[in-house]
Amino acid sequence: MPIALGLEGSANKLGVGIIFHPPSTPPSPHDSAHSDDEVPKSQSKPSASSQVQILCNLRHTFVSPPGTGFLPKDTAAHHRRWVVRLVKQAIKQSKIQIEDIDCICFTQGPGMGAPLSAVAIAARMLSQLWDKPLVGVNHCVGHIEMGRTITGADNPVVLYVSGGNTQVIAYSAQRYRIFGEALDIAVGNCLDRFARVINISNDPAPGYNIEQLAKKGGDVLLDLPYAVKGMDVSFSGILARAEEMARRLHAGRKGEQDLWKEGDKVIGEEDLCFTLQETLYAMLVEITERAMAHVGARQVLIVGGVGCNERLQQMMGMMAADRGGSVFATDERFCIDNGIMIAHAGLLQHSMGFRTKLEESSCTQRFRTDEVLINWRD
Amino acid sequence: MEVITLPHLEQHPLSVCLFRNVQNAAFLRQQLLQANHDFEYAFLDASVLLSRTHVLAACFRAITDVLHARLKSHNVHSEIVFALSPNNNIADSFRRFGISDQSTNILAIKVGGDASQIEAHLMQHVQGTPVLFTDATLQTMRDPARIRKIYRVDVASKEAEAFILGTMALKGS
Amino acid sequence: MSPDSGTPYLPAPFTTSPTPLTLITRGAEAALYKTTFLTPHQPCALKIRPPKPWRHPTLDARLTRQRILAEARALVKCGREGVRVPQVLGMSWEEGWVALEWIAGRTVKDVIWGWRAEGAEKGDAWLRGLLGKVGRAVGLLHSIGVVHGDLTSSNMIVEEQGSTAGEGEIVLIDFGLATQAVQEEDRAVDLYVLERAFGSTHPREEALFGVVLEAYAGSYKGAKATLKRLEDVRMRGRKKSMIG
């Protein structure tokens, strides 16, 4: 009975998930929040897209105080502190026996070194303890495969946006190829760092709080740089300018300089958040559209933590509809880092005979999406 | 006289007549200055015209600017003269592309109207020889030095037309 | 526009015109129509940038204007300096269209795909010849201080010459992200964008990309320095922290 335990800890979320791939079930209608008439009903390799059963999907997040980011050392300590508790709870909740598990899957990269290693140690330990094979999983591939399965998007262009990654990806010849990416910092990092500058809470996530503030803005769009180069983007210039704006705002409030006004409107954090979101997401939609035009695709799948953003989903949806296609996105259970996606992608790899030997199980902070052989797809 | 229909502007046919050896440029210019409604034409000095395409590009720009209500001068005919200019100075564009009292080779353009009436009117009032409006004829009339001075491009080069059209298109940006 | 996505956006005067407009491609930025312009005998590529309703209207208008102008300015400059690009016949940045000279031919992407589909029977040497032309075309562009901003094998046309398809000169198109820059860094990023796009579009021919760079190296005085800089850009791209 193909069951995998997945461990994720590449950033500040510790995730433990257990998945079950029912053996050779015929493709069944998937439970998707979006409908798409274009998805071919016959799927070539059912293991990748047919119904899977999520036995449990647990997560515990390390939240740092406002104005600070999560440091690798503290994050690793958090993961070490929680991993055993989470695994125990996962087994219990799944109502499975240890012997039912086929493999221990873990995030091998990319991500922050210390937290990755902390979780990898846990994975090795479980593998030795229970005598189960290890399967090292690329974090990005985990997101993509989970997204495809949950949404039923068959062959989408994938926008992977998180605190550490900004990539536009399309599948070709058994690889997820990166068509475009951020040339400097990731979009989520840009949002996180801006949240620190305006001192808003990291709970539940800085991006979420920016989104809520942005909803109160909308009267004015301030002028931020817009940096698209081909299918690549650059965010550091935008962050620098947004930080400058935040300083101007604060200086105006403290009376160190004139209060910042545009016309009669006094500029506030909400306008900065609104402007930042509108600019960043327009760039992301643009490079995604470029990739769609380039490869002739009509579906878009958004994965990664920033993919939860409703405004991004809305903009992407309008773009995709305009191209006669549709957008697929998952809710926070799957777009935010989680263990189930690692279990899922790992079990697909396992089904193709892939194993990670103990001596090859070290983590790597830089593990490109296109390094993984996607041999479960045609 | 020739009636030219620009693709995409079929509702705005152009009546175009090129005259050689015009004797009464001063009179024609006077009619324009007096805003005589019988003389609503674009009168261009052919010595600064590179090619048919050059002229037609100006006409296209002028007509579309009328359609979008963004005239810089007072009507479509003055706008054709203005559209030829590489810069935004209206007086300058008339000095360079409009007729002077000394002009002898003149291109008359009218947007819309009844072609046969226009032709009769032009034949009656322009004292010159109508000739075919072709690149070959224009070539015999043009003054490369003046064109070079206006657009800063060598008229003989094969890139000249592309550069001039591009410059006109970018004007006002 | 894809057939099932409703009425295509056309600005005046093209809305009411009886002159046929044939949709050629619908790229990310613009729809490209083949039509005639100024005379019924002048074939033209009419590039229309429809408004993007998902973008904030202020941002949308700003980007449309910027890109139409960037494109036209770069094309006019290229034309003047003798780099073969489509000629600008007319435009309107308010309505978002530009009328360009029609270039007959196939994109480099299609030519390479065709070469592969024919079982590469024309041989590697033939493909190397084509890639050499690509390198020289990009080099010539950079030599006059223009950076394309979106170099891909789809943005290059092998101009038709007589009946021998794929043998003509390379004409660069789609200058919407072009800048007039003299910085080595900008040129290097331009090459990096091409390198990556080439790799993802033509994975089986990726190993031959070096031919493009070799030809580029010999194409103008600063080319070698740009290629040196390209190595830095590559390192940054690959080694850059994936954690932000």
List keywords for this structure.
heterotrimer; B: 173 residues; alpha+beta; PF0523-like; 5 strands; 46% helix; 13% strand; C: 244 residues; Phosphorylase Kinase, domain 1; Transferase(Phosphotransferase), domain 1; 2 domains; five-stranded antiparallel β-sheet; 6 helices; 8 strands; 41% helix; disordered N terminus; transferase (chain B); EKC/KEOPS complex subunit CGI121 (chain B); CGI121/TPRKB (chain B); kinase activity (chain B)
Q: How would you describe this structure to a colleague?
A:
The complex is a heterotrimer of chains A (378), B (173) and C (244). Chain A has 378 residues and is α/β, with parallel strands linked by helices. Helix content of chain A is 41%, strand content 19%. Chain A has 2 domains: 3-23 and 50-142 and 337-360, Nucleotidyltransferase, domain 5; 145-334, 2-Layer Sandwich (Nucleotidyltransferase, domain 5). Chain A contains 11 helices and 14 strands. In chain A, strands 3-2-1-4-5 form a 5-stranded mixed sheet, sandwiched between helices. In chain A, helix 6 packs across helix 8, helix 7 runs antiparallel to helix 8 (269-295) and helix 8 packs parallel to helix 9 (310-322). Chain B is of the alpha+beta class. Chain B has one domain (2-170): 2-Layer Sandwich (PF0523-like), CATH 3.30.2380.10. The radius of gyration of chain B is 15 Å and the shape is globular. With 244 residues, chain C is an alpha+beta fold. Chain C folds into 2 domains: 22-101, 2-Layer Sandwich (Phosphorylase Kinase, domain 1); 105-239, Orthogonal Bundle (Transferase(Phosphotransferase), domain 1), CATH 1.10.510.10. In chain C, strand 4 and strand 5 (97-101) form a beta hairpin. In chain C, helix 3 packs across helix 5 and helix 4 packs across helix 6. The interface between A and C is large, with 55 and 40 residues.
Briefly characterize the structure:
By secondary structure, chain B is an alpha+beta fold. Chain B has helices at residues 25-33, 52-67, 76-84, 90-97, 115-125, 135-141, 144-151, 160-170; strands at residues 2-4, 14-20, 42-45, 106-111, 129-131.
Q: What is the secondary structure topology, with strand pairs?
A:
The complex is a heterotrimer of chains A (378), B (173) and C (244).
Chain A: E1 3-8, E2 13-20, H1 46-49, E3 53-61, H2 72-94, E4 103-109, H3 113-130, E5 134-138, H4 139-151, E6 157-161, E7 166-172, E8 175-181, H5 187-197, H6 206-216, E9 228-229, E10 232-233, H7 236-253, E11 261-262, E12 265-266, H8 269-295, E13 299-303, H9 310-322, E14 326-329, H10 332-335, H11 339-351
Parallel strand pairs in A: 1-4, 4-5, 6-13, 13-14
Antiparallel strand pairs in A: 1-2, 2-3, 6-7, 7-8, 9-10, 11-12
Helix pairs in contact in A: 2-3, 4-11, 5-6, 5-7, 6-8, 7-8, 8-9
Chain B: E1 2-4, E2 14-20, H1 25-33, E3 42-45, H2 52-67, H3 76-84, H4 90-97, E4 106-111, H5 115-125, E5 129-131, H6 135-141, H7 144-151, H8 160-170
Antiparallel strand pairs in B: 1-2, 2-4, 2-5, 3-4
Chain C: E1 22-26, E2 31-37, E3 39-48, H1 57-81, E4 88-92, E5 97-101, E6 105-107, H2 108-117, H3 124-143, E7 156-159, E8 170-172, H4 184-201, H5 209-217, H6 223-239
Antiparallel strand pairs in C: 1-2, 2-3, 3-5, 4-5, 6-7, 7-8
Helix pairs in contact in C: 3-5, 4-6
Keywords (chain C): Activator, ATP-binding, Chromosome, Cytoplasm, Hydrolase, Kinase, Nucleotide-binding, Nucleus, Phosphoprotein, Serine/threonine-protein kinase, Telomere, Transcription, Transcription regulation, Transferase, tRNA processing
Protein name (chain C): EKC/KEOPS complex subunit BUD32
Subunit structure (chain C): Component of the EKC/KEOPS complex composed of at least BUD32, CGI121, GON7, KAE1 and PCC1; the whole complex dimerizes.
